[in-house]
Predict the 3D structure of the following.
Amino acid sequence: MRTSGLTADVVLRARPLRDLASAEGLQPEWSDLWSRCPHATTFQRPEWLLAWMRSSEPSHPLLIEVRRKDQLVGLAPLLIYQSGSERVLGLMGGGVSDYLDIVVHPDFANEALAAIWNHIEEEPDWTSLDLTDLPSTSQLLHTLPDDFDFTKTAHDVCSGLTLPSKIEDLKNLFPFRQLRNLRNARNRLRRAGSVHIEIATRENLLSFLDTLFDLHGQRWALAGQPGVLADPAIQSFHKTVAPQLLDRGVLRLYALRLNGRIIASLYALFERDTARCYLQGFDPEYFRLSPGVHLLSSVIADAVREGKQKIDFLRGRELYKQHWGAAESPTFRIQASRIPRLQEATRPRRAA
């Protein structure tokens, strides 16, 4: 895939960055580029991916930056990792991100994509390409070079609700059964004692995170599993990124207190027109009080009050999402093998 139709003074240049320090040096420009990409999510923010790099320590990071003169107009946060005999080229952020993607300036999207693909073709260190968790809005899905042999498939499912503009209209959004569940949950909690919902501040954020880690672990222990937050690297990631997202007004870490004790927690990301429910946990001792139902209803109500158009429950088909009437939408996966002509070009020649 080659660029075309550009005059000499607007030819775009792609350059690889292969270490954390180089990526960190991009942060101001990366933030500006992110702000110009209407479909970019929190998971493409530099704060999110740089924290991921610090906690995950990928052995072969490969960020491809694309510039028009001195302006950053594209960034592909890639890495190469070993999987069996394959060296796989994928997107950064796996394991903590529900949507993976690149960021490209809308005014130079086609040219920036071409420059990224050209560099991928020329990069010698991968043998297979596997780009997962791509949202339907990803330009990678719609602008693929002709000289790759791709497969494009559905990968996972996210789900969400389109929100009304007024709180009073929520009763028309939720299924009748869930409205009844919500009413019963509120009544049970009131009978159990004093109920209060808090949102973490800079002062108590880390203690709220520790409580979330504990509650999430207790929830998954019921299924005989440790849960993703049991991993110290994942905890380190969130303790790094959460203060930055809080400072930018993105993170909402909710806590539901009953008689002063936190019995449920929900980690939400309020970004642009969407509120995303990222992680939650509850104390199994209070399971019959349905604290998660009460807490999630408060998050949804806050999203409506702030003019959000959608609540995104993110990845997975958990039953509670269906109870709220959420509609599913797929994420996608692009796979390809090494380009044959490059393999031929880089194969050692036999001496004559």
